[in-house]
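Notes continue from the previous slide.

Worked example: a multi-chain complex. Inputs as given:
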Amino acid sequence: MRFSRGFAICLLAFAAALAPMAAFAADGQTMIITGEDYTKWLWGNQRYDGSLYNFTTVPGEGYGDNGQGTEINFLVASRPSKYVEVTARIQSRFSQNQWTNFGGFGGRNPALENPPAGDCTGGDCGEFDPRSNEYIKMRGLTARFTPGYKWVDAVTIGSTDLGMFDAFTIGKIRYIDRDNAKAVLFQGALADRKLGYDLIRVSLPRLWAGPNFNTGDYTAADGAYGLQLKLAPAQAFDVVGIAERVRDIEVDSRDQDYDNGRDVRTRFKNDVYGVKIGVHPSSMFDIRAAAYFSSAKSEPIAGAPANFFAISGFSPVPAGELDDETYKANVDVNDPFGVGLSFNVEYFNIGAKYVSMLAARREVDVLLTEGRDGTFAFPGPDNSAFGVFPGNASRIGFGGWQGNAQQVATINVDNEFTDFDEPLAETVIGWKGITIAPTWTIGNLDLSGEYTMVDYNTNWQAWDDPSQPISSTIYPNMDSDAGFRSFRNAYAPFQDRDTDIMVLKAKYLLDVGKGVDLFGKLKWIDETDKRMNDASFLPYLAGDCPGGGQACANNQRFYSPGNSTSSIYGNPGLVTVGNVTGYQWKPFDSLSDDDRDMSYQLIQLGAGYQLTDNLYSSLTVEHYDVDLVDGNTAFQAYQLHTMASGDTTKDKVILFARYTLGGAEFGFNYEYNWGTFDPDFGGGFVPTLADAQTAKDFGVPVGSPGFRGRFGGWNSLIERDFKQQRLKAFMKVRF
Amino acid sequence: MGTTFWKTGALAVAAGLFLASAVTAQKVSFKDPTGDDNGPGTYTYPTDAVYKRGSFDLTALDVEAKGGKVTFDVTVNSPLEDPWGMKGGFAVQMIFIFIDTGAGGFTDTVPGLNVKFDEANAWDKLVILSPQPPGRVKDEISQKVSADRAGAILVPSRTKGAGRTISGTVELEGDPSQWGYQVVVQSNEGFPADKDLLTRKVNEYEGQHRFGGGTDSDCDPHAIDVLAGSGTGDASEVQAQHDMLKYECNPDGSTKTGAVLKMVRKS
């Protein structure tokens, strides 16, 4: 939850804050050890118990909405001398450490299994899996030196969350912990302290910081180097320059002469240069602008992909050699009329090929706009990815995540190990547009809103390179752009999209008792995407599928020599249902077959009250109404995802409570979601009826209508009703 | 009949407006110059990106009394943000408003600020505007502040941030235009040092979550911006603030001469 998130973010600050307490105890060195007991209770009617997190996409990890678990976090700080301080964190991890493990004893031992019985999940490997044997691990260890030299203020060696840099280049990074990154950092000020600098070398995380979410076979020498220069020559003006250099190298297998050492080759390199300028003429006006240039190159060695196959590529960076720019400018006008009315205006232009491997992946918000809402995070109406195939049920569930998304300037978006009450991060790679966000305070009434217009640098045809096959692209199409879209997908083979977002929010403090917080929000999103907008890209020649029970002729149309979209939009076969014979799905023979038109509305109302000094509670009601045309059965959500064309309503009730008692904090977040998806997949095909196996695989009645797509996935045509309940309660005790 | 009705009505409205204006007359406002969010002149912000330029730069204090309650609005020179999800509309700031309502009062403040008042400017009430839950703030007060001073500290039931202004209302009788004020801008520290009241440290060198430009001991004032001079926002108040927050440390890190604050008054 956000509060607990904030609480946890402060852990790092805590470790840093502890050290000065012993600042002048160098002669009688003091070591301070404090700790935290964090206990979490999850409950939900999805009935998953794979792990004590609601969500992950990491293969082999568990996820779930049920269980109880406890973490311990030891925070150690000491100051051996005036010049040195050391902080450390030693922590256990929730993961599969359920209370029901009874201490993590026993369990199946995957090392002895033949044949292997699969991934450990829900703690079933007991003491044989570190994720369920309550192991305690060094999470962060940092030594900070302040030698007193003129040229350097501090040298930090060890763990860091990189929060001192910039979200577009080297951003604050969290994976499971906030200080997983390890680095050497020099900080100081030159030129009479007018020019500040941060110089860093970060060891590149082998887990995800390279093409295909790895850094190859030889990882120990991989690193990112960053330099940030901050100049503030006057109160009204400041400028920051940033340079980042990422190098993922491999041992060169072509070098067979071992006597003179081994040569290396670069698997992936990424350079980013940025400049940020601030002009602050008065407290009424504030102007900030930033520009970045990035270049990246992946060499197809050690698993770096040369390209991705059509619409299923997964990677935190596009393949090949690419460069692009990113721009952002903000103008804040603070209360120009003296009536409490202020304006923020933001222009943004994030390059389609902008790459910074260490850009912030979550927990920052690089744009002013609210963007999308976390409750619609994946393509399918139930938030499932690949739910058109059996065994891919929704992980986070129909309710998704609470609140609006936070925007990050990378496709390397990370929502791993989150719970439903945490903010969702979404990529804004390719976004360009403007946001106008007024705020107006009138006594106890706070009004705010935004209008955002988004165009896209990723609006293109045939991956922006019609000379290439549609099934070969440098762009990963993670989870695709179908349905309600994916939080980490920026690229589609065909896109002609624009988005308008409008938000109006109000908060009112009702002067009754301790003051009742009343709040509400209206949000509209209007989005259209013509996707394919040139008939030369249609997969087959006109009249290829004549209808009337006649098979398609399969006469391909080629948009460039040898290249046809028939490889992804193949013709249907004939099916006979009852006495009707027709196409299994609608042939893709019209530019309107993949058109997208979304009308999205949210109404939110809520009230909160400080029941006692220690107890605050709020109740929020949300109603979502989404009318979505997202192509018909010819498009069929790239045949990989549950089609979301139709009307979706979603209602959400959130009961929140927070209680403090001395050094302890308790949180409670209960959510009830219910809603309906009424599909409308258009015509031009003959619906088939679910057989017994289909009914079993997808939980639909035998004989209910639907259709099987190109890859064998099933889309049901019956109305779906959803209900999801879930609860997260936690306790944090500092000691 | 009709004329009498309208005359009476007009008189009633006029009287109501007069009374209303009399009530709203219990307002007082102070300004503070921008760019003086550097304590005694040397302090620098922590290096983490959440500490945005101007976040601790006090620009105004507005006080309004109505119906036995007093509302305090403190404005800073940056749009408020809530990166830590505190749910009150702001996160990094922590505001201490010292009030001199009459004779007597306290010269010591609260742990973590490292400032005092002189006898002539002793404070009687302290209002704390924190993004932390009020229960947490009160718990910290009860643990870390002497009982006599703790009894003079007021924590609003609801503290909110909107735009650039942090606001809170407390029950307090009197005419705010007759009181003296001092505002100390600090930073909300959820994991404060052992004796500090939810305040962030100032060190010799800035760190990711520590202010810089002071000392590693507690002989420096941990006040990033305060009201000074006449509270009009005049540029001369920058120097007045620096003078007020001057300090000197002994070699062992103890205080030789500490920062002594004065109240700012309208009259």
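Summary box: The domain at 26-261 of chain B is CATH 2.60.40.1190 (Immunoglobulin-like). The longest helix of chain B spans residues 2-24.
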